[in-house]
Amino acid sequence: MTSGGIIKAMADGVTCADIIAGIFKTSGHDTHHGLMQYQQMLTQRYQHYLAMRAHYYQQEKRFLNSPFWQKMQAMSPHKIHSEMELQANLT
Prior knowledge:
The protein is mainly α. The chain has one domain (4-90). Helices cover 80% and strands 0% of the residues.
């Protein structure tokens, strides 16, 4: 799961460059649409990461009494996503 970060960062950079190039081609008239697409892609990728993390953390059964693992196993991607939406609406 962690080794994919470099590849994702490079892919995000390429995608971002494509969006910026598209904005320049339209003389900046489509800036909002391009940025919204990019934000949606990043949000979907982060939601997928949270779901995968929750899945892997739920697999751990060796340290059930550990406060760290109790906290990690209690986290749900849906709860985290709801908190992210709340914070986004406040800004």
